[in-house]
Structures are given as structure tokens and as C-alpha cells.
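User: Thanks for the earlier help. One more: histidine kinase. Can you show the sequence and predicted structure together?

Assistant: Of course, both are below.
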Amino acid sequence: MKFSLKLLLCTMIVMALGFGFSGFYFVNYVFETAMDREVGQALDDNSILRFAFETAALNVPAKYDVLQDNTIGEIASNLETGGHSARRMLRLSDEQKQVLYASSGFDAGSQCLDMTDAGTKTYRVIKLDKGYYIQAGTMVNALDRALYLETLRDVSDVFRERALGFSVYRQVTIAMLVCGTFIMHLISSWLTRPIRLLTRATKRMASGDYHYRARKVSGDELGQLTSDFNQMANALEDNIGKLEEEIQAREDFVAAFAHELKTPLTSIIGYADMLRSRKLDEEKQFMSANYIYTEGKRLETMSFRLLDIMVTRRSEVDFTVVSVESLFVYLYDMYVLNKSAKIYFNYDEGFVWAEANLIKSVLMNLLDNACKASEADGLIEVYGRIQKGGYRFEVKDHGVGIPKEEQHKITKAFYMVDKSRSRSRNGAGLGLALCAEILLLHKSRLEIESEPGKGTCMSFVLPTRPEEG
């Protein structure tokens, strides 16, 4: 059952109970008020008739010491119609409750007399064939004779008004419930609209449409729920996008790795087969062995770089204060004496918060890439500068450069802008990927500025104090 229908049913049940109880109370209150008025009038009529009877009895000629039955009947007959446009209904009984006079149609029982004593008035509401009546009773003392006087007052109109009131109120209640049902249907539909929109959004997202968002149509708790749902959907979409990118990156990695293995393995197998199956002169033997050695070194370099990347991703790094001078001295010792390129070093003395061996690996890879991108006698510049918020390292070459559309790809594993140039220098396309992983651990990133034919500048910033990291 829909929530809007539940809300509608609950509201209508409450309305029906409310109208029912309030209607019953109101109609019954009016009825009881009218009955109280009628009871008072019935008792007053009974008292008036008792006084009139006693007065009439006193005016009877004193022929007898005790009021006779026929005289009682005459007095009662006169009282029955005297002074009223409508005929009164009364009954007189003696002390033994034997009826001495009764109006025509006075069919009520004598139970009222059982509760009547001297000086008291009693009444009860009874139902006869003709309708509802109030039966009132009292004792009359006339010429030393005790009598019981009973009167009937017709209150059928009061009961008919009550029945009519209930009937009218039922009709009004039904009409109000019908109108209320229509109005509450509109209200419940309006109140539950945000829920329907959220349901639609969840179905769209479940079907794979992660860009769909629920429309916020209210500023209440449901509106806040819609905002929270959209925030959750944004986070979910971002996470799914990252997962898809990661899956795609893994697929690309496997494809690139297989492709990179294919070339050196083909060369190794081909030249090894040539050495095995043919007799070659010394020069060709050396050339074949050299190809096998060169491609083997490429495979070795590639495997070591892959291992470095995996270790870097999974290792916990211990940061320390590292002297910038020690980093530049290390680069000088490693490259200047072994490379044909001209390398210019210039740095500001200072300290950085880092893991020394990892940062050395980053600088070595950047310098190695700069050497590969430059000509044999090309100039490579390495700078270290203190700046606001940290210490910046820059490695700049004047080599072939990188096209702008390729710059965002070069930190991916196995990606090479110029594959033939990289392979000729034992490149595997993994150096910058390793640099990116190391800098990520240091909460930094590799910044690239390059222009084809003019060179490339790669830089990154490290904190100088622990709180900056």
C-alpha cells in the first residue's frame, strides 16, 4: 500500500471517529438538555395538579368524613381538561394502589408508585405504543385520605428530534468525509511528492543512470532528505567513476605491459634462434648477442620499475628532515660523471620534510627523462628554490618537448611520447609513473610545462616543516 494511501486512510479514520464522537456528544447534549426541561415541566404539571386536586377536595360539601371514590373521579375528570387546550393524562390510585380514576390511554404500569412516598416526587421515562412519555408520581392528601397521583407527559417530539439530529449529522458527516477524502487525497499527494521523486531517482540510478538527481520541491525534512540523497548520489557517482577509471587503467596497464613485453621478447627469441640454428661470423654473433643483451636490460629495467611502483604504493613512509644540499650532491655524483649531457645545478640551501631515498628516486627519474629528451650535448638545468608554502624542485631541458594534448598522459605506466626514442635508450615508460606515485605519498604532484621543440620543465613542491605536509 502506498504511503499516500496510508496517510489518507489514517486521516479519514481519525476524521470519522472525530465527527462521530463529536456528533454523538452534541446531539445527545441537546437531547439531554431538552429532556431535563421536559422532566422539570412534567414535575411542575404534577405539582400543579396535586395542588388543584387538594384545593378542589377542600371545596367539596362535607357530607362524608372521607372523600368518596365517585367524588375523586369527578374532581379528576374536571382536572383532566380544565385549564389546558390539550387533554391531560392522569391517574389516581388509593393507598393499596388500586386505580380510582385513569385517563383514556393511560396504560403505564405502576412501578413509579413503588418509589413514591409522602412529600416526594418521582418520575420515569417510558415507551408506549404511541410514543415516549414522562410518568411523574406524587402523594395527595385529601380529607384524611392518601392518594397517589400520576401524570403522563408526551415527549415523543424530543426523541424524534434526537433521531432527526442523528440522521442529519450522519448525512453531514458522510458529506464531510467525502469532501475530506478528496481534499486529503490532494494534500497527501502534495506532501508525498518528494518521496515519489526520490523513488523515481532511485529507480533511475538502479537502472544505471548515475547522472540523474532528485528534484528538491520543499524546504522541510523531506527537502533535506532530497538534498542528502543527491549528495550521496554525487559521492556514489564519483566513486563509481573512480572505480571505472581504475578498472580501465588496469586494463590499459595489462595491455601496455603485454605490448611492451612483446617487442623485446620477439627480438630475444629471434636472435637467440639465429645463434642456435646458424653458423654466424664473429661480427654477426656479437650483433645478435648485443641485441639479446640490450632487450634483456630493457626487460630488467621494466621489471625493477614495476616492482618499485608496487612497493611504493604499499609501503609506509617514514618522513624526516632532509637537507636539500644532500639531494643535489647525490644527483651530481650520479649523473655528472656518467652522462654526456651538460647539467647545471643551482639551489637555495634549506630543508624539506620527506623520505630521502624516494625523493632521490624522483629527481633521478626526472633527470634521466631530461637526458633522454635532450641531444648528446644538450643543456639540462636543475633548480631548487624556497617559496611561500614549501620548497620547489625544477628539472628543465631544451629537448624535443611534449605536445599539450599528451602532457596529462605521461604519468601513466608504459606511456611514451616518442616510443622509438625511448626504447633506443632503454626507456620503459615507467619512470614518471613512479614519480607520480612517490609524490602522491608526499601529498604533492608533478607539474609539467612543455612546448614541442623548445623543451620541458617538470617541477614539484615539498613542505619544509611537518605541519605543512
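User: Great, one quick takeaway?

Assistant: The radius of gyration is 56 Å.
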